[in-house]
């Protein structure tokens, strides 16, 4: 069971499972602890996994005032310190991968390694237009289901839509009692649309694995590659048949690859 953890000026909803080296999991737009369920279930025999709801998502409140990626990276740092973790393997997807980049830049002592899934250094015009589309879609969609059905077209593969996995996810989201307010979705998106780590990525010293989905139409492989090329000695791999969130669609494959990276990092460390 999760609990609220006091970290900085927030009470952050946090779930901790397992035993072993510490891992921090950072979600993307509106995603909560539950988005990492396949990792919480599949890796807890080897790692102590810490997942949390970002500010304004799920059970973590959105304070008044501006929202920035830097602020959310500081939230993650405050959470690690609050649960007495001096250094963790950090994995983030989509917006969570950008938070993870900032965490490694602002608090390098806390980051043992980085896994960046579906990431970018700065949104290109295509991705920026898509983010702005989602920003207004969430406000004008005729229902929550209609929004999710449209949004998920760019998040999951056709395979997941056709085999019923996406419909099951939609049912779970619709039943989730801790809804994210429309304005909080928009504030989260606003924080990322013009955020840029391009010139600072070479300062990241943590061992890094960048993963891209070959069928991802948002954080496309060239954007992910641009991150890997700027982080010294980063590994870059494309999961050719996957989209934006392979850690959910093919969790066994994703978990095995990330576990191998963490084990190698631990050996070298």
Short synopsis of the structure:
This is Alpha/beta hydrolase. This protein is of the alpha/beta class. The chain has helices spanning 37-42, 69-82, 95-106, 125-140, 144-151, 158-162, 165-175, 182-193, 221-230, 246-249, 251-268, and strands spanning 3-7, 10-17, 22-26, 48-52, 88-93, 111-117, 208-213, 235-239.
Helix content: 40-55%
Mean pLDDT: 97
Low-confidence segments, given as residue ranges, are: none
| Second CATH tier, the architecture | 3-Layer(aba) Sandwich
Give the strand line-up of the largest sheet.
Answer: 1-2-4-3-5-6-7-8
Strand fraction: 15-25%
What's the number of structural domains? 1
What's the Cα radius of gyration?
17 Å
Class from helix and strand fractions: alpha/beta
Distance between the termini: 32 Å
Using the coordinates shown, work out and report the CATH topology: Rossmann fold
CATH class: Alpha Beta
Helix count, per DSSP?
11
Biggest sheet descriptor: 8 strands, mixed
Shape: globular
Order of helices and strands: EEEHEHEHEHHHHHEHEHH
Strand tally, please? Answer: 8
CATH superfamily membership, which one?
A: Alpha/Beta hydrolase fold, catalytic domain
